[in-house]
Specification:
- It comes from Gekko japonicus.
- It is found in: Cytoplasm; Nucleus.
- It is a single chain.
- Helix content is 48%, strand content 7%.
- With 355 residues, it is α+β, with helices and mostly antiparallel strands.
- A hairpin with a 4-residue loop joins strand 4 and strand 5.
- Helix 2 packs across helix 5 and helix 11 packs parallel to helix 13.
- The protein starts with 13 loop residues before the first strand and ends with a helix.
- The N terminus is likely disordered.
Length: 355
């Protein structure tokens, strides 16, 4: 008789339960007793067990398929149509309403960042979502958001352009996540808290990569910017819409620094971004009694939003309420669909989904 607690069935062997108790199950190579199925199991029970096994196999197969789909985090959720119908209420034809997360998944932002005309638009939209709309995204949309952000960072690391823009985006997102993680008990984030901590660590890693970028000077091939006549240099600088870019350009060469202090340059920049009423409220005089347009610009930036201008934007068709990128075909019944389209700023896009 075995000791108390000892399993008398040896490990590594197959045992079956019969009417007389447990019997060791032998394979065809062993010369011993092999019990028949009917000697220890009724037919009904045997068939029922096969049904249960089949159901369990189906469930396991579905679970593996779902896990495989969820593990493809690097692939954006793809839809054949590059447009979405924006509706805020239920009708006889359509039930439910469109959400920000659904629109974010459907509107091909992953490929839009590869287009230089749309890059700044998408980055600004990512920044606005990071500031106030991150919690309104579904779990799939949040995963899609992080995937697109990763593609943005990789693009900047490769071409070494728009570095400051992406630094500001990452800092905004990290600050928002710090606030949201502290409120995890209020169920403001979708997913496990450890997953979000890992994402915050990834953002810090991206920031470090951007800080370590060493911009290499291209090989000298002919004329450079400073070789152009001063009037052409000033004309090019007047086309810059960010005062910080003018300051950075002035640090390249002494001649550019002199052009970067031009009063007319900063005056045009102020009138481009701000109204006359806003400018009159923030007048600053220099030591010589003249208006210091450069100081006025940076003071105005802190008080009022700058004018936004993008090469390409999302458009909303007033006739059929379909949202799409410019140039994207959508099923519109209007005689002149182009006359029904209205360009949307990133903030206008966010406002569409505030109910």
């Amino acid at each position: 008789m075995p000791f108390l607690g000892q399993d008398w069935r040896s490990p590594g062997q197959n045992w079956v339960k019969t009417a007389d108790g447990w019997t060791r199950f032998l394979n065809a190579n062993e010369s011993s007793y092999l019990p028949e199925r009917n000697s220890y199991c009724r037919k009904e029970d045997y068939e029922k067990e096969n049904i249960f096994n089949s159901i369990n196999c189906d469930i396991a197969a579905k679970k593996r398929k779902k896990d495989q789909l969820n593990n493809k985090t690097k692939i954006q959720y793809f839809h054949q149509e590059k447009w979405i119908y924006v509706h805020k209420g239920s009708t006889k034809e359509r039930h439910g309403y469109c959400t920000l997360g659904e629109a974010f998944n459907r509107l091909d932002f992953s490929n839009a960042i590869l287009d230089s005309r749309r890059f700044n638009y998408v980055v600004r939209l990512l920044e606005l979502i990071a500031k106030s709309q991150l919690t309104s995204l579904s779990g799939i949309a949040q995963k899609n958001y992080m995937n697109i952000l990763e593609k943005v960072v990789q693009k900047v690391l490769e071409d070494q352009q728009n570095i400051r823009l992406i630094r500001e985006l990452l800092q905004t997102l990290y600050t928002s996540l710090c606030t949201l993680v502290q409120s995890v008990g209020k169920s403001v984030l979708v997913g496990n808290i450890n997953m979000w901590v890992h994402r915050m660590e990834t953002i810090l890693h991206w920031q470090q990569q951007l800080n370590n970028i060493q911009i290499t000077r291209p090989p000298h091939k002919g004329l450079t910017f400073t070789d152009l006549p001063l009037c052409l240099q000033l004309n090019i600088m007047q086309r810059l819409t960010d005062g910080r870019d003018i300051v950075s350009l002035g640090q390249v060469a002494p001649s550019l620094q002199v052009l970067g202090e031009d009063r007319l340059l900063w005056k045009k920049l102020c009138h481009y971004h701000f109204t006359d009423r806003q400018i009159r409220k923030r007048l600053i005089l220099s030591d010589k009694g003249h208006l210091d347009w450069k100081k006025m610009y940076f003071k105005l930036v802190r008080c009022y939003p700058r004018k936004e201008q993008y090469g390409d934007t999302l458009q909303l068709c007033k006739h059929c309420h379909i949202l799409s990128w410019k140039g994207t075909d959508h099923p519109c019944t209007a005689n002149n669909p182009e006359s029904c389209s209205v360009s949307l700023s990133p903030q206008d896009f966010i406002n569409l989904f505030r109910f």
